[in-house]
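so my prof wants the structure for this chain in the tokens format not the other one, which i didnt know existed until like an hour ago. anyway here's the sequence
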Amino acid sequence: MGGCIGTSRGVNRGSRMVTSATTEPLLRDTEREAVSTLLRYLEQEGSTSSTISDDRLLSLCTLAYSENIDLQRSAALCFSELSERLTEPISEGVLEPLINLLLSSDIDVQKSSSLAISNIALHGPPENKAVLVEAGALRPLIVLLSSDCPEVQCNACGCITTLATSERNKSEIVRQGAVGPLLNLTKSHDGRVQRNAAGALLNLTHIDSNRQTLVSSGAVPVFVHLLESSDEDVRFYSAAALSNIAVHESHRKEIMSVKNGRVVTSLISLMESESEKVKCQACLAVRNLASEEENQKLIVDFGGLVALCPLVRSSNAETVTAAVAAVRNLSIHRENAEVIVSSGILKDLGTLVSQQDHPEIQCHAAGTLRNLAAEEQSQAIVAAGCLVGLADQLRNSRNVPELVLSEVSAALAVLASDASARRQIMELYGGNFHKVLLTLTESSYSEVQYNCAGVIGHLAISEEYHTALLETRPSAVDFLERFLNAGESSFVHIALWILAQFSNGGKNTREVLRRSSLFSMVEQLKTSRNSIEVTQLAETSFNNLKDSPGTSVLS
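here's what i got, hopefully its the right format
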């Protein structure tokens, strides 16, 4: 999902602080004293001080609540200058006069006060964002989004963008009605305003309830249109927002309904962008859209795979991660399998599986190979040399994360259903890779145990491998006994399935199994209260071991 955008594109201050010399006849004594106090502060102490003391706050309040518009402008300008240096958390007491200035009808006051709020949110401590909302700054900022002045719009929009980086504020911003005005500002002719509006909307897409409101408010066609913006940041924000919205199934349908799937061609075009962050977000959006089965074939037909292939070779890890994740989703569709294989990407996937510094990339690459193997592409995968990359991860399992081991072992379990893959597995590392698999049936990760057992089960289909699997240490007998004793239904089931393969072997194989405790365990299981499938597997194995080999039982 796209990240939060915290940069506020503000505007230059356009007013100057009033001086007591030029306005003295117009000022009350309290106002004149307030001006003097703030002038001394800004000129003598302002460059180093980072706090607003009680006397300075009183002076600011005097000017902020004055009926003299010049004094209001001075207060707003003073706040904007101070806001750049405030390092301590802001208080609601300090914010009260500043928020009051946001409500002014004077454009200069609006410019300076909105810039001050933006600085406090962006440059101050994180807790400032919550205090600003609690103090009531959000409502006037939303009102200012509809200002006729682009500079005011820019400041208000930038501030809301920053406020929306806080999880606590995202829902409140939507609840108070910011979505409609922000969507309107994405059509602004002022690039700064459009950029800030798109950034604010992106930040709001991180909450599911917000995404629903955005979609209902017509945000999807707006974002699709903005993908073709001339501004790099706007393209990035829009792709990221669509990626976030596409997390939900119904929203994916909404996105794809815009101009007959025009979003796909726009995203594919962005994959060729010179901007790395734009390319990455385009890939992420395609990945999420490809979570929908009906989109997977369409994306490939539109040229999505062709655009993704070069990106899996990128030097940027984030782009590679996003691209290979998209390819993984595309590989789910049966009709895409041959196209993916013929694209030449298999060797790249084999290389990516070996990238130890990037576990997420390894997982997606292994998951893609698994999907392709399930669609009868195992021989192509073996021919591309991918089997070695997968096996290396299991061989070096101590240094490999659990998720990678799970994905890799799952891919091997599917590949091992192919005879040529089984042959290569048994020949790996001088014919000793099966020992790695047997050892990993004792892994601390149950999924790795199960998957490695699955590989061994496929190897057991070929009687030529029985001796290596049963009569050397570690032995398949050991893990089969352990799995049957575990009592967990999935482990009992796979152990019986594997045992059925072995029990269909020759005399020597059956003799080894009969001498173990497996024979009596299977005898008990065939009469115990288990599922029909477990009972049938147990009976098949028992009959094979008791008498003569029968027919191999495959899952």
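also thought this was worth mentioning. The two ends are 37 Å apart (CA to CA).
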